[in-house]
Design brief:
two-stranded antiparallel ribbon, elongated, alpha+beta
Length: 83
């Protein structure tokens, strides 16, 4: 059985829309958009390849694949809320 690497990526998005929002602390009110996503990838590690290289390469691919869909989902949700 070959070695595997399991990568779990969680993205949490909180967007607040308003005037005079604090720069450094979380606003007291509820966010206008709150959403969470989870992505998982399992990769096989070849016999001559370090697991760190496989993990890093697949994390890059997982992030690259998650960003466009996440961004579009956020845009759609904000549009539906009138922002």
């Amino acid at each position: 059985m070959s070695k595997q690497v399991r990568i779990e990526l969680e993205i949490a998005v909180r967007i607040y829309v308003g005037e005079n929002l604090p720069d450094e602390s979380k606003p007291a009110e509820m966010p206008d958009l709150a959403d969470d996503w989870g992505f998982t990838r399992v990769a096989h590690v070849g016999p001559m390849v370090p697991a760190r290289d496989v993990g890093a390469a697949h994390l890059t691919a997982l992030l690259s694949g998650a960003i466009p869909g996440t961004v579009e989902h956020v845009r759609q949700q904000l549009r539906e809320r009138g922002f």
